[in-house]
Write a structure and sequence with these properties.
The protein has about 60 residues and is an all-alpha fold. The chain has one domain. It has three helices and no strands. The longest helix has 21 residues. The radius of gyration is 15 Å and the shape is elongated. The chain starts with 6 loop residues before the first helix and ends with a helix.
Amino acid sequence: MSGGLPETLGNVMCSFPMVTDTAFCRYRHYHAPTDIPDKLAYPAFARAALGLFEAFAVLAREGVG
């Protein structure tokens, strides 16, 4: 990984599911010239966004603890 986190830290970060900017771990087009809209999986993004919304709605309604 160039210009980013040390390789060992990057590998550790990629071992955990996170809702954050870890695209460099799993998307070979990330910030490359080939990173163009036709490479994106819009239905998957929509499902992920809906899942997060539903999870946050439950937390807001029922509380965290």
